[in-house]
Amino acid sequence: MFEKLRKRLSGKESKRRQLAALLMLVGSGLGLLASFVLSIESLTLAKNSHAVLNCDLNAAMSCSTVANHWSAAPLGFPNSFIGMMTLPVMVTIAVALLAGAKFPKWFM
User: Residue 72: is its pLDDT beyond 60?
Assistant: First the structure.
């Protein structure tokens, strides 16, 4: 009990929380960017199924073949759309944590 109080008073726990929130912000921001790019490319493939995408490097590393597979859209829309809906929530939580918000234990 006193160890937790000492850590809280020394600031080690708050620095750890800020680092975790910063990593969460960076990770969810990168994920949001990737979801946005993949969404644009999936819309390009919807217009032209034979289009060459930016992520197609060669015959072995081709993302258009993966994007045309049924598992890329099992619910009827591309998986990247789910990322575009959920990752802003993660960004919001990370910003709130960096601002000093205290969430209940069950939330985190």
Answer: yes
